[in-house]
Amino acid sequence: MASKEEIIEKAKGAIAEFDSEMAEEASNEALKEGIDPVEIIEHGFTAGMQEVGELFEQGSLFLPHVLAAAEAMSKGIAVLKPEMEKRKSQTESKGKVMIGTIEGDIHSIGKDIVVSMLNIAGFEVIDLGRDVPVSTFVEKAKEIKPDIVASSALMTSTMVTQITLEEQLKEAGIRAQLKTMVGGAPVTQDWANQIGADIYGENATDAVNKIKEILGV
Ligand code: B12
């Protein structure tokens, strides 16, 4: 019988070794041992992806490696999905969160984790996907009237579009009726302050806590 630490290490290793089968195995073992899927995702898969990211930045790994790591991560998370659905808060929706990766940016792994955690915490999440045009954020916000409009940006070249989102929500006359949240690796609290976003979320747990706080739920 594997311990929690061993399973978390296995999940982390699966991403670092781009091994989808091992990622699924780690998830299945976690389910068997009754370990919270959130722990496997945060301390296992995400930690592994961070390592891969660092090696990619240092130039010792290349894009195909990163893609293979991303694939392993989504395979591992897919195994955990049914259990996460089960653990979903059974209470009425705590609020509506609309989220997407900003225009020009196809990074979706972090955003997807935030979506999963918000779901578990009992929020209704409208996931617009990745590379979402600012106009789509605005149109959908008018239609769906979410409490929160959240955008993810993983590149310095796309985080600037979060400014456009703030501006267009104002132009559409709906900015005051909702709160905006920004996140993604290059995004900081300073950036959120600078562009006038209401919430900065460092990671999925932080995002959930801060939304709960601002909505008072
Ligand atoms: C995986 C990855 C990819 C994968 C993405 C797969 C996918 N489906 O998402 C692939 C291989 C496709 C890819 C492509 C590219 N990538 Co890339 N990629 C990465 C990598 C290695 C890891 C990102 C990741 O998934 N991390 C793991 C997750 C869990 O962490 P996270 O995203 O930060 O999310 C957490 C928090 O930030 C937060 N969060 C995230 N979103 C949100 C949203 C909200 C609202 C909140 C509150 C919180 C929140 O919560 C999450 C959970 O804790 C990073 C390196 C890095 N260190 O970030 C580069 C990186 C982001 N990529 C980079 C680049 C340049 C590219 C490409 C342009 C490469 C190319 N030459 O083609 C293309 C992008 C094309 C495009 N138009 O978008 C650069 C960006 C540099 C910059 N300008 O800032 C980076 C930093 C690598 C580097 N140093 O060069 N990439």
Structure keywords:
Methyltransferase, Methionine Synthase (B12-binding Domains), Chain A, domain 1, single chain, binds cobalamin
Structure classification = alpha/beta
First CA to last CA: what distance?
39 Å
- Specify the CATH class of the largest domain: Alpha Beta
Q: What is the count of DSSP helices, taking H or I runs of 4+ residues?
A: 10
Chemical compounds bound to the protein: cobalamin
Q: What's the total number of strands? A: 5
Total separate domains: 2
The rough form would be described as globular
CATH architecture of the largest domain: 3-Layer(aba) Sandwich
Main β-sheet description: 5 strands, parallel
| CATH homologous superfamily label of the largest domain | Cobalamin-binding domain
In sequence order, what are the helices and strands, one letter per element?
HHHHEHEHEHHEHEH
Q: What percent strand?
A: 5-15%
* Radius of gyration based on Cα positions: 18 Å
How is the largest sheet built, in terms of strand order? 2-1-3-4-5
**CATH-defined fold name of the largest domain:** Rossmann fold
Name the average pLDDT.
94
Helix content class: 55-70%
Low-confidence stretches: none
